[in-house]
Amino acid sequence: MEELVSCLSDLRAFVRQSVSLDERRTDAFTVPRSSSGQRGRPKITVTRQQLEFLVTQGYTIKRMAQLLGCSASFLYKRTKALGLPTRNSMSRSLTDEELEQHIRRLHGLYPRSGNEMMRALLRAEGLLVSRQRVRVMLTNIDPAAAARRWSAAVARRTYYVPYPNSLWHMDGNMRLIRWGLVIHGAIDGYSRLITYLNCNTDNRAATVLTQFLKATCVYGLPSRVRSDHGGENTQVALFMNVVHGVEHRSHITGESVHNQRIERLWRDVFLHVLHSFYNEFYSLEDNGTLDPANDVHKLSLHLVYLPEIQSRLSRFREAWNHHRLRTENNRTPSQLWTDGMLTNMGVNSTSINNVFGDDPFTEHNLEGLLAQHGITNFPAEMVDQFPAVNVHPPSVELSQEQQEEVLIAIEDIADLKFKYQMCCNEISHRLSLTV
């Protein structure tokens, strides 16, 4: 009798597994289930870390259930048992006066931001505010700008790639190159997730590769990358061809104007971040306090403005990745990337396998791939031999000690223009002492 019960139990487990595989055949991620061999449904295993991650990404319980392949009622019980909120609660203690102060400050930094971007900027600072409150406040603060946004909708062609990380679009923005500053960025074509966005004082291939590799350590290695023909992209092209093979066409080149996702992103980056610096630098030139050909002026500009530009770019990137897209059912780029990865987890795709499969960055994998191409060591420093937009750094140099002295002397100055002028004076004084 005991042997019969054991056999029936094994058969039941086998049938349940077979039915699960046949009827629920899917490439999507589902939470693990374990059977004890006793009566009742299999135990569902959902960790606290998984739930916390999805809550911070802005998912509702219903959407979490769809992603994890379980019921919403189970997740309600599970989150309650763990003491987790079922959604991010609104900052209700924030008064209208306090909210207006925050929005006015952010509006001064990002004057062209609309309702969703302003909500995302507030969220980046830990403030979750309803769309209605932000819309009313922005309209009251700057009604003319709100009217301009309402009339600025543009019809565009449909863009399609199958999965997250199928194609990253990368490029360099040269709007500030007159003053020796270049913005490098990349965006995932599927989700519009910005993978990196940085301000640099050079346009070298090694600099671009370093930023690209740091982004792949966070989001995984993309299947393909698209860029223009600039020489600054050669090391990324070499790396992609080494890892994926030349036949994979892992690096696609073309005209910048056809690199749709990143060109559209540059419009927003200039609109929200670079525009104010662009005007301010020309204003300094008009006042005679900035000469782009003067190395002391250029070095001072970099020391004062580069950290501020990078800070605003980083805040913009964080806000962008969490702002809701009307054309994507109000999901954020971060949610689109996560959804695409989890719902296609079982798909045999390079972009998915690079996240859930073997790590292409392990020492064994990378060394083996390099050896196949006759490369014993990947060139960390390589002379840029291909045509690229040149950025000429200041010819004057300060020692590390001198630079720290200058930064300490100007660190308490809030106004950037005055801070720049004082920086010029401090650098000129120290250079005169060394002559």
UniProtKB/TrEMBL annotation:
Q: One MF term in GO for this entry?
A: nucleic acid binding
The record places domain Integrase catalytic at 160-341
Gene3D superfamilies this protein is in?
Ribonuclease H-like superfamily/Ribonuclease H (3.30.420.10)
Q: Which domain of life is it from?
A: Eukaryota
Coiled-coil intervals, chain numbering: none
Q: Name one Pfam family in it.
A: rva_4
InterPro entries recorded: Integrase_cat-core, Integrase_dom_put, RNaseH-like_sf, RNaseH_sf
One biological-process term from Gene Ontology? Answer: DNA integration
Protein name (database record): Integrase catalytic domain-containing protein
